[in-house]
Amino acid sequence: MSERGDSRTLKIGGAVAAVAAIALVAVGIAARRNSEHQLASWTAAQATPTVTLIRPRAGTSGGALTLPAKLQAYNSAPIYARTSGYVRRWYVDIGDYVRTGQTLAVLDAPELDQQLLAARAELQTARANQRLAATTAARWQAMLAKDAVSKQETDEKIGDLAAKSAVSNAASANVTRLQFTQGFTRLTAPFGGIVTSRAAEIGALVSAGTAASTPLFTVSDVSRMRIFVRVPQSYSAQVHPGMHVSLSLPEYAGRTFDAMLTRTAGAVDSTSGTVLVELQAANADRALKPGAYAQASFPLAGAGTALSLPASALLVGEKGTQIALLGADGRARLCTIRIGRDLGETVEVAAGLSAGDRVIDNPPDSLRTGDAVRVARGGTGTADAAR
């Protein structure tokens, strides 16, 4: 009886263990299926990018086309040494005003001085030989008149005089050349202006005519300034000589300078798509400085109607510059635009954008037309908010 009871107990225990194992396997399979379902849902959610939307912002230029401009002196000349030597003395420094012909520095050129002395000695020798040849030729011509010498010998003496005269002239030209070169040891201002750079130091060796030569001074005439601006092609037909343009500089807040457009290149730069124009402005108080950057405002019709977007909304690829718009069906649509002005953080769009478009900011590079997107909560704003 005891053996039969033990056998039944074992059978019941085995059945319970089998049922537990089956239940454990079922629970594992259910958990795995649930994980796979969650993974599939997460993958599908990740495949749909979450984006933020912005609205284009209307241009605030107030009917004026504002472009970056670069200022240059009306005349600017780097002063190089025309002869090698040592700086004996310099007389002006940066910021000094100089007159036309004023001495800037003086060089010592001992080698040139010795060359000039030797050339003058050679000139004296050549002139002495010329005088002797002239006397000899005159005597032989007189003896030829008396048939005392032959015509051949007389012609030789006359030819020798001509040769000695040519040598004398060459020696005189060499002396003149060295005198002019010696005059280059005194550096002078080519026109009136201010000294904007100085590299001359007393005792420094100056080598002329080499690639490593640096200007000892730079003189700039700042009484009048040249301003160069690149105008986009879409506005180039509206700019013309005689137009007045307003200049503003960051160091003079609230102050504007009047400039006049004097000339235009008349050609579009194929690299930038712009036309180079030159403005000129009076600068009696020297407020405008060479090399400075300014903002030039052109009073052009329709210049203030452009729409602007942050640069982060742009996609640049094989089809040019594009933006991604959100359609009514919740899918993205890529469209090509034409940029009017690039302002760095923002760009003004000349064509391809409407004020009511919903633009996707920071679109993924993989985004294509027809792709579904999900708008982030609170992800709609203006171009200002996006920046």
Describe the protein:
The protein has four domains: 1-39; 50-59 and 305-386, conserved putative lor/sdh protein from methanococcus maripaludis s2 fold, CATH 2.40.420.20; 65-73 and 221-298, Efflux pump adaptor protein, beta barrel domain (Elongation Factor Tu (Ef-tu), domain 3, Beta Barrel); 79-188, Orthogonal Bundle (Helix Hairpins). Helix 2 packs antiparallel against helix 3. A six-stranded antiparallel beta barrel has the order 3-10-13-12-11-14. The chain has helices at residues 2-47, 110-145, 151-183, 233-236, 383-386, and strands spanning 50-55, 57-58, 65-79, 85-90, 97-98, 103-108, 186-188, 193-198, 205-206, 217-232, 244-248, 256-268, 274-282, 293-298, 307-310, 315-317, 320-326, 332-336, 338-342, 346-351, 359-361, 374-382. With 387 residues, it is α+β, with helices and mostly antiparallel strands.
Layout of helices and strands, plus pairs?
Elements: H1 2-47, E1 50-55, E2 57-58, E3 65-79, E4 85-90, E5 97-98, E6 103-108, H2 110-145, H3 151-183, E7 186-188, E8 193-198, E9 205-206, E10 217-232, H4 233-236, E11 244-248, E12 256-268, E13 274-282, E14 293-298, E15 307-310, E16 315-317, E17 320-326, E18 332-336, E19 338-342, E20 346-351, E21 359-361, E22 374-382, H5 383-386
Helix pairs in contact: 2-3
Low-confidence stretches: none
The largest sheet is: 6 strands, antiparallel, barrel
Strand order of the largest sheet: 3-10-13-12-11-14
What fraction, in percent, of the residue positions are helical? Answer: 25-40%
- Derived from helix and strand composition plus strand pairing, the structural class reads alpha+beta
How many helix segments?
5
What's the pLDDT, averaged over the residues?
Answer: 83
**Series of H and E elements:** HEEEEEEHHEEEEHEEEEEEEEEEEEH
**What's the CATH topology label of the largest domain?**
Helix Hairpins
Gross geometry: elongated
CATH superfamily of the largest domain: Helix hairpin bin
The CATH architecture of the largest domain comes to: Orthogonal Bundle
Number of domains: 4
Proportion of residues in extended strands: 35-45%
Number of strands: 22
